[in-house]
Amino acid sequence: MTFIKDFINVLSAGSISFTLLTSIFALIVYFNLLGGRIKAVGGMAFIGLGVFMLLMGIFVPPLLYLGIAYLLILFALARLGGRLWDTKVGLRLFVIGGLAFGLSMLDPNFFLIAAKPDNVPIVAMIFLLGFFTWVALRKAYLNDTQIAVGGIPWEKTESDEKLFTWPDLVYTELLCMILLTIVMIVWSVVLRAPLEEAANPTSSPNPAKAPWYFLGLQEMLVYFDPWLAGVVLPTLIIVGLMAIPYIDTNPKGNGYYSFRERKWEIGVFLYGFLVLWSFLIITGTFLRGPNWNFFGPFEFWDPNKLVPLVNVDLSELMWVKVLGTSLPKLWIIREIFGLGLIGAYLGLPPVMAAGPFRRFYNKMGAARYYVGAYLFLIMMSLPIKMVLRWLFNLKYILHIQEIFFNV
Amino acid sequence: MANLRGLQEGIVNSQIWKSVFRVGIPNTNRKRVLAVLGSLILHLHPVKVRRSGVRMSYTWCMGGTSFFLFLVETVTGLLLMFYYRPTIEYAFTDIMDLREQAPFGIMREMHRWGAHAMVIAVWLHMFRVFMTGSYKPPREFNWNVGVILLVLTLLLSFTGYLLPWDQLAIWAITVGSSMARASPGAGNEGPMSGLVKLGDIRLIHAGDDARFALIGGRSIGAATLLRFYVLHCVVIPLAAGFLMAIHFWRVRKDGGISGPL
Tens digit of pLDDT for each residue in A71-88? Predict the structure, then answer.
């Protein structure tokens, strides 16, 4: 039991759980919704990556765990294939998840966090997200198999059939309302709303956390300065969401579930919604303890936990560690590596437009292409920064305190 | 059974009933149409809907759930307003009173859990709309209204978080609002704010920056409480209500509950 708990504690560290989720997303898009078989070349690459992680685990122990978990998931996905979308298999997964959660509740440290009144909705959210992701992908899989053999999506077979609002819709709504009312009353009777002692501006709690739905943003503060994590990136999330219908010109998949017809849109959205938004909220809620230190789900929130601060800037890493000289005085020379990297990153869209993405560029037009590409790059800068922090303890790629510009 | 049927007919044919519900029991297609058209509430719906739009497995009923939870929040919130005074002398003690003294006091619980549930329901609604591709033309604008409604939902919950005036409340809002301090050009610790100058005098400082505007002071205090109370009970619900009206209207104008076009 202790061994399993320790294993889960190690696995849930951001460096492992986040990297795993990200690779699983790559797998899902690659395997065409897990329906197809492992394709020869790419499949070997995925297996190779797992073996590489195992080997690297000799030098960096967490990678060993990552490699094991990754290969296990790869194996499970290959075995399950399209059967993942059978209701029986889905039900089994759901039961396993519920059992695992129930067993975990026996652990005092886990119980302390998961049973906190304000965290109960987030526990519910984890299961709801899992369930609805499965439902949506299952429906997409069923429709995709129909379309693949020349059929039409299930929703289209019914779209000409119209029902009277009274009684069909009105009664469904009434039933939903009654059900929700019951749920709300039972929930309110069983669980009291939290109320701590009266506000005291002189004693701050540790950890001090924002409301739960902003904990993803608070987690971003670890990787970016407040003006980026707290102001610019949230604004861009809203702008990006609003831009979706104008960037996505794919006319297919309008009004029915499908995956193959919209692989990239769904891949990017699910990554942003499930991994970058929801997963970071879950991390911020359950796994961030005193001093915003990381704690595994079965770990005691020790306020005296010591975490070495060994983060370095890219300029320091390059000039001092690699080249063995002192930092140049002039910032434009000191930050030359960071400037080069960021320049290359931001230069990707025009280069790709001329090369491999020419087809997209021509289809979308310049405005759509560039807005979409830069929104995507900014979104991806978060996971890139996170992984760089964990693997190389990299603090800033660009650290220009002279003009308050740190990235 | 026969008696019950007689009783039902008696009620439905009485002058009182007929004065309220003009149609009677909607048991013919003509009456079903009239029942929806003749009611202010029901005529939010079209007379007929796509079959897939009625299926829970397709819509997950999350848009309706969000709206219903908004109504729950409105009703429970109004009841809470009878007990609550938004000043630092009374706010916390009023909540204590509500907790200890009010009989059958589950209104605060229902308000809080309803708020959390509404945030989750709105996210799941967005998730469903994305997965069915229902933001695609002609529904682009309605997706945008939805995104603003999502932001308003979060702001509603955020402003409400402060009102109990306990430790949980003020520190969550302290953390949440400290970001505004870093707004580029508008927060006192943000980049480029130092460039906004009049001669040698910095115009952006802790006493007039974006955070100050948000919380009405240099730290969370009486002004913040009143400000958040007014935002929570009046400003944001009105804005959200207005946008919801547009949202529902546009659902109908853009081709009904989503389905393949």
Answer: 888 787 777 767 788 899
